[in-house]
Amino acid sequence: MAELSPRANSELLLVGSLPAESTEAAFRAAAELFGDVVFALPDGETGPRAAWVGYEREQLVRPNPDVDTVKTTDSPTGIPRHAYETPVFKIRAGVSELHWDTWPRIDDAIESYGQFRALREQGVIPENLRFQIGLPFPASALNGFKADFGADYPVAERAFEDLVARELERLTGEIPPGELAVQWDVCYEVLDLEGVMAWTAGDAWERFTGPVARLTHLIPEEVLVGYHLCYGTFPEWPMYEARDMSLLVRMANHAVEHSGRPVDWLHLAGPRYLRSEDDSFFQPLSDLEPGDARVYLGIVLPIDGVPGLRRRHETASRYLDDFGVAMYCGFGRQPGTDGMETMREHRRTVEALRG
Between β-strands 224-229 and 180-186, what pairing exists: parallel, antiparallel or unpaired? Predict the structure, then answer.
């Protein structure tokens, strides 16, 4: 097998979710369209994982016998349409500690890697690419504990971090670390720090920085590790529009300094299209200290294609010398009428920067 790149060094990052119907379809499409411009391929986060941390709400939190469902979704379809329609959970009275045996997301990752390896052996996936898995950070995964956040979140966080520690060991035992790329998906933590989630309480900065220090160093150094810092797409991009990139830069700098191991890439979500030439939005990038991490700016927006990407790239380049690009977030829930055509358009848009 060809020697794998020691770090992320590509032009494009695929954030995670892709508009495909299955893991195999996602791998095949991504390998065909992006195999020469990425360092790793995600499995598309298809099926139940298309709802991102809705998967943790339904597959991890709700089934726990020590968790009560206080409120189900108000959506007439049964599928939440926005943050205030998601289920609300509470730890049962008298329970002081939670426990989860396994994390279903890791089962899915191991299964997906099996398909990744088979397609690589068939020559469908280039040998130099790694298998990429996105894992939600604690506050994102546990966003349903809204009924008594101050009392319940610390208990749930301890249990979740214990689970993550055990399951990272299982993940890297089943998948060769030299073939793996792990992305921490950090969204609710960003919104928490912006102060826009009415149900949270206490130290939002520690809810981000604590897991950075406690969890990331558990991942073997042969594994590439990145952070995806985002304002979310539920139900629209972004869930909250920041005035500038200063918070994401602060979070990225902290992650690089305190992860206890190399950080290989940073993904920082960009602005809405109307701020494409807003210097004040991008200016905080001049304070970014990525170290050896490859920076990817989430400045590819389907709304304005190539012209918009060029505007944002030019503006960002005034404050950051070298960076790759990515969609503002995963785009599996935004396939348009044809998911394959959506991915082709993503390739064409990114390709235009080469011209």
Answer: parallel
Nearest C-alpha neighbor of 228 from the set 302, 146, 351, 132: 132
Is residue 81 within 8 Å of 235, Cβ to Cβ? yes
Nearest by Cα to 170 from 136, 132, 220, 208: 220
Burial of 196-216, coded b for 16+ CB within 10 Å and e otherwise, reads ebebbeeebeebbbebbeebb
Q: For residue 355, what pLDDT is reported?
A: 65
Q: What is the pTM of this model?
A: 0.95
- Name residue 316's amino acid: A
Are the beta carbons of 235 and 265 closer than 8 angstroms? no
Cα–Cα distance for residue pair 138/149, rounded to 1 Å: 13
Hey, what are 171's tokens? 């993940």
| Tens digit of each residue's pLDDT (9 = 90 or more) over 74-115 | 777 767 777 777 889 999 999 999 999 999 999 999 999 999
Decide: 30 and 332 in contact? Cβ < 8 Å.
Answer: no
Per-residue pLDDT averaged across 205-218, rounded?
A: 98
